[in-house]
Design a protein that fits this description.
This protein has about 270 residues and is α/β, with parallel strands linked by helices. The protein is about 45% helix and about 15% strand. The chain has a single domain, classed as Rossmann fold. Strands 2-1-3-4-5-6 form a 6-stranded parallel beta sheet, sandwiched between helices. The chain starts with 9 loop residues before the first strand and ends with a helix. The structure holds nicotinamide-adenine-dinucleotide (NAD).
Amino acid sequence: MDYKILENKRGIIFGALDDSSIAWKVAEQAHKAGAKFTLTNAPVAMRMGKIKDLAESCGTIVIPADATSTEDIENLYKESMEYLGGKIDFVLHSIGMSPNVRKGRDYLDLNYDWLLKTLDISALSLHKVVQVGVKNEALSEWASVVALTYIAAQRSFPGYGDMAEAKSTLESLTRSLGYHIGTKHNIRINTISQSPTWTTAGSGVPGFDKFFNYADQMSPLGNASADECADFCLMMFSDYTRKITMQNLFHDGGFSFTGVSQAIMDKI
Ligand SMILES: NC(=O)c1ccc[n+]([C@@H]2O[C@H](COP(=O)([O-])OP(=O)(O)OC[C@H]3O[C@@H](n4cnc5c(N)ncnc54)[C@H](O)[C@@H]3O)[C@@H](O)[C@H]2O)c1
C-alpha cells in the first residue's frame, strides 16, 4: 500500500534479523510510507543478520542495542534523536527469544535461569524501552508503541513453552504501561497478536509447519502474513489510531474467535 501515512514521523524499529522478520517488512513499508527511523538489534544479531542491507535500502543507520540493557537503550534513544533530528513518534518492539524453546526443553523440565532470560528478553524489555524513553523525554506526545505477541498468552499451545509466559507478561505490561504513559504523557501502547508466520523465531517452535497449517485452516480469512502485519503496524503508528491504547489487537484472520472450521472438521 502506497499511502504516505507516516510522513514526518520518526521511529525506532527493533528486531529485523533477515528478510523473513516481521520487523524487516515493517521497516520496508514504513520507509515507503514516508517515515524516518533507525534500526536496532542485539549486537550478536548484527553478525548473523543482514540488517545493514536493510538500513542501506531504507536510507538509515543501525544502532546496536541489547533490549535487556538499560544503558544500550539510553544510547539508542540518544543516537536516534540526534540522527533523526527530534523526538521519537513510534517504536516497534519485535523481539522474542526463549533458550528453553530453542534448546527443546520440555515444559515440565524448564531451566529456570533460562525462563528468566526468556522473560527478560521477550517481555521486560518492553518496560525498559518505554521507561527509558519516558525518563529521557525521548518519546513525543501521541507517540505510538507497538509490540508483537501471540495467542499463546490466552490459550495453551504445547510447543510454545515458556514463551507463553513471556507473551502474557508482555500484554499485561502493555495495559499497565498504557495507563501511566497515557495519563502523564499522551503516549499510546498496544500489542498486535499475529498469526503464525514463517520467520526465524516462528519456525523455532517445534512442529511449526503443522501449527501454521492448522491456524491457516481454522481462520476464516487464512493466516495473516508478515507483510499484512506490517500494514497493520503502520496504521497503529499513524495519526489515524490516536485513541487506541492498552489493547491486544488480534491480527489473525479470525482464528481467535473461531470455535472450529469446516476444513478442520473434514480432517477429523
Ligand atoms: N513468527 C511468528 O509466528 C510470530 C507470531 C506471533 C508473534 N510473533 C512475534 O513477533 C516478534 C518478531 O519475531 P519474528 O517472527 O519476526 O522473528 P525474528 O526471529 O525475525 O525476530 C526476533 C528478533 O528478536 C531479536 N532479539 C532477540 N534477543 C534480543 C535482544 N536481547 N535484544 C534485542 N533484540 C533481540 C532477534 O535478533 C530477532 O531480530 C516476536 O516478538 C515474536 O514472538 C511471531
